[in-house]
Amino acid sequence: MHNSITLENLRVLEAIRQSGSFAGAAQMLHKVPSALTYTVSKLEDDLGLLLFERSKKGARLTAAGTLLLEQGRPILEAVARLEESMRAFEAGWEPCLRIAHDVILSTKPLLQVVGEFLDKELPVEVAYDSVAVGGGWDSLISERCDIAIGVSGDIPKGEFEVQEIGGLSFLFAIAPTHPLALLGRPISAQDLREYPSIVVSDSSRILPKVSTGIFESKQTVKVPDLASKIAAQCMGLGVGYLPTHLIQDKLKDGSLVERECEIPRADLTLYIAWRKTKKGKGLRWFVEHLGAADWGLSRNEG
Amino acid sequence: MHNSITLENLRVLEAIRQSGSFAGAAQMLHKVPSALTYTVSKLEDDLGLLLFERSKKGARLTAAGTLLLEQGRPILEAVARLEESMRAFEAGWEPCLRIAHDVILSTKPLLQVVGEFLDKELPVEVAYDSVAVGGGWDSLISERCDIAIGVSGDIPKGEFEVQEIGGLSFLFAIAPTHPLALLGRPISAQDLREYPSIVVSDSSRILPKVSTGIFESKQTVKVPDLASKIAAQCMGLGVGYLPTHLIQDKLKDGSLVERECEIPRADLTLYIAWRKTKKGKGLRWFVEHLGAADWGLSRNEG
DNA sequence: CTTTCATTTCAAAAAAATTGAATGTTAAAT
DNA sequence: ATTTAACATTCAATTTTTTTGAAATGAAAG
């Protein structure tokens, strides 16, 4: 009475329904008709219900059989998916891949690559999350992601591998109405201290705080992300360096102007990073394709 | 390699995970440890994956085992539900019960009864739908429902059973500002023809149209349901008979006033109706409880 | 009336699952 | 250091379940 329903049972029922007869189903399943008679009768006995209306011209599901199969079909499908998952896992495809994306980079290339991956219809779940500037390492170290895109600086001690995706240069760009824009000479450290600067807060929780773009100015305005920083500088709220590739349009339409600044901002090389221990095919695939994507950065051919 | 995953396999995995050891799981399942070794090894061979990390102090799921069980657990649960469905079906509970509810009746008693039924936690899906006045028979005949509440009139030829739930009386009620309200004498057929009347459209598609409340007036306004008709008559848009039990509050607060009318409106006896062929326990239960519910109608004790 | 498909029954055979005893290993307890 | 208790595994024997093939049967079609 208990546990009488098995997957094989459901497959047999489905085959009989599809072919319309025990004989046809037997052929489908490479079995002999009497085997199906046995299987079905046993199940019918166990359930105490007639599952098929047998005639000499075939067999049709009864209401009970329909009920059973209607609910059973999705179960069979789930099992089939599960089997595919296991096969994929066995072949080296991890069940889930989490990508952390630094907001300093555009999401477009990432989405494009993710889209390409989804087209392969693998049973690999892809999750991605944006992290604040510099948050990639943190996300990787605390195992909140498997791949971090757009990390920079020193590689934290531990088992990580990286691949360069390009260089990031900065321009000192400010609103044309800002007093420092009208100075007529290179901006000095002294000048800077006279005005507020805009700082992107770092969400990093494990790594020590990295001060990105702080020049010890009189006041600082903390904003949650780079887009806010750009917006704030366009409004003349403050000044600071901004990534060249993100402000091309602002420079073109005059919302921002470039100025020379005595305090230099070093170019940054950005990487994709992941744990050496992770060897899934999905990770490999993503590293390869994300590395080849056009992130709009300066690249040294090599 | 194919179809290596069975429900029994999943149950074994789950038992081992729960108890933390093959030995414990064997006890849970009333088997001998070597049986589980056999089962698990076979599955591991088939999948080509190690499912458990065996130590001398027990067994822990590997990543592959976790993946398998994580996806397998919901499958086991679905199968358990399916088995319960079949048991309930075998015991006479139909898998789905559709109730048509005539808008002339309040939904409150119905919802109360449905709530009571749901408390029993049976694997019976309950669907209910409101139908226009007189639409119950139609819904029943065309098999869009199993039980119709609030049908009236002749029982259509065919295999139906009914149970009375009470009588419905009508009052000729109109807005106090309506000219007919100021007449000072019983309203005649002639009077009626001078003013628009409000008619609820009948959604019935199979039965011949029953004109409910049409007095051949100059104009008629068709509204989709009784609530609209009451609202329309409160606004003085038209006149007509309304079910006594639905306008008690309107009469009390003066939105409507009762007037005598020469054209009488016969009381209606309302029934619950269902097909004789349907013998499910759910139907029986609902007929019994819906029949005993208080629909706010007049009842002749018997 | 015969042929053709069907399903079922039944006994035999094959396959799969289960058992129990033996083996070996480890961690905790003495 | 030795013993004890828990545990997983292996293997051959056993039991259970599934599958088979042949024969029986019935109904519709030619």
Automatic annotation (TrEMBL), chains A, B:
<dbReference type="InterPro" id="IPR005119">
    <property type="entry name" value="LysR_subst-bd"/>
</dbReference>
<dbReference type="InterPro" id="IPR000847">
    <property type="entry name" value="LysR_HTH_N"/>
</dbReference>
<keyword id="KW-0805">Transcription regulation</keyword>
<dbReference type="Pfam" id="PF03466">
    <property type="entry name" value="LysR_substrate"/>
</dbReference>
<keyword id="KW-0238">DNA-binding</keyword>
<dbReference type="InterPro" id="IPR036390">
    <property type="entry name" value="WH_DNA-bd_sf"/>
</dbReference>
<dbReference type="InterPro" id="IPR036388">
    <property type="entry name" value="WH-like_DNA-bd_sf"/>
</dbReference>
<feature type="domain" description="HTH lysR-type">
    <location>
        <begin position="5"/>
        <end position="62"/>
    </location>
</feature>
<keyword id="KW-0804">Transcription</keyword>
<dbReference type="Pfam" id="PF00126">
    <property type="entry name" value="HTH_1"/>
</dbReference>
<protein>
    <submittedName>
        <fullName>DNA-binding transcriptional LysR family regulator</fullName>
    </submittedName>
</protein>
<dbReference type="GO" id="GO:0000976">
    <property type="term" value="F:transcription cis-regulatory region binding"/>
</dbReference>
<dbReference type="GO" id="GO:0003700">
    <property type="term" value="F:DNA-binding transcription factor activity"/>
</dbReference>
<comment type="similarity">
    <text>Belongs to the LysR transcriptional regulatory family.</text>
</comment>
